[in-house]
């Protein structure tokens, strides 16, 4: 099958998953509202502190809102199209991966749309924060309209980076089976840390979040250029290349890891 055929098949699998989820519309709406409230309350706690003290190491409330929004939307884009990568453990423990291996399709292509998620709550929350923070900074003359396409590019490259981190973490499950605790570090804790400027952290931790678990490339590094004009106009291109390298490395690691998979026999 060529690339066009794979893409058509993937769209078909997504449509099937959406129809399955929309059979329970009330659950979908309730989950979306709760997700938005949780995300907003998390940012509001930071906003209250910033409102009282004005800024954190020179980063304003609007700039930190921007960091929150970009990483939230990047994570949402990743988890919308590949949520089951994050939940690979249940396939390894329950033996469901065996069923995917018997299908005449690449395992990753079959796995990704298994539970396609329309994360409306996260989209609304992230979109609101992004419009609010960018709008405020535009009115102050800190940024101009060029920041909009650059931000959209940052969200897309950020989604690729977060998917790569998630895929690499999931791949380790082919050896360990259990990966939830590791995901709490590489995906959840790292993403939470990246919601704030990396300059707040010790050198070793900021280096870890830029190189080993590169969530800093999702929002912090692009924000330095988009919001502050620091580093240089090469930043978006370098981040895009880094995202491509992360994706390539994670896919190769996945291909190697799946050869080590041992069936549960169930």
Automatic annotation (TrEMBL):
Q: State the InterPro entries in the record.
A: ABC-2_transporter-like (IPR010390)
Q: Does the keyword Ribosomal protein apply?
A: no
Alphabetically ordered keywords of this record: Membrane, Transmembrane, Transmembrane helix
What Pfam family does this protein match (any one)?
ABC2_membrane_6
Q: Give the transmembrane region(s).
A: 28-53, 59-78, 150-175, 208-227, 233-251
Name the UniProt record assigns to this protein: ABC transporter permease
């Amino acid at each position: 099958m060529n690339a066009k055929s794979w893409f058509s098949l993937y769209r078909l699998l997504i449509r099937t998953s959406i129809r399955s989820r929309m059979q329970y519309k009330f659950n979908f709406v309730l989950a979306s509202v709760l997700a938005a409230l949780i995300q907003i309350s998390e940012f509001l706690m930071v906003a209250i502190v910033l409102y009282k003290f004005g800024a954190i190491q020179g980063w304003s409330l609007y700039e930190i809102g921007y960091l929150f929004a970009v990483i939230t939307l990047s994570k949402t884009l990743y988890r919308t199209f590949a949520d089951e990568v994050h939940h690979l453990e249940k396939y390894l423990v329950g033996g469901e991966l065996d069923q995917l291996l018997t299908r005449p399709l690449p395992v990753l292509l079959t796995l990704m749309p298994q539970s396609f998620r329309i994360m409306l709550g996260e989209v609304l929350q992230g979109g609101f924060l992004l419009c609010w923070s960018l709008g405020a900074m535009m009115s102050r003359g800190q940024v101009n309209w060029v920041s909009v396409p650059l931000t959209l590019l940052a969200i897309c490259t950020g989604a690729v980076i977060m998917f790569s981190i998630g895929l690499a973490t999931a791949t380790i499950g082919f050896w360990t089976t259990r990966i939830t605790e590791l995901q709490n570090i590489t995906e959840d804790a790292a993403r939470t840390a990246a919601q704030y400027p990396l300059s707040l952290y010790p050198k070793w931790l900021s280096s870890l979040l830029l190189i080993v678990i590169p969530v800093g490339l999702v929002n912090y590094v692009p924000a330095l250029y988009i919001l502050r004009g620091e580093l240089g106009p090469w930043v978006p291109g370098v981040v895009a290349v880094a995202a491509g390298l992360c994706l390539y490395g994670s896919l190769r690691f996945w291909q190697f890891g799946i050869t080590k998979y041992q069936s549960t026999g169930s």
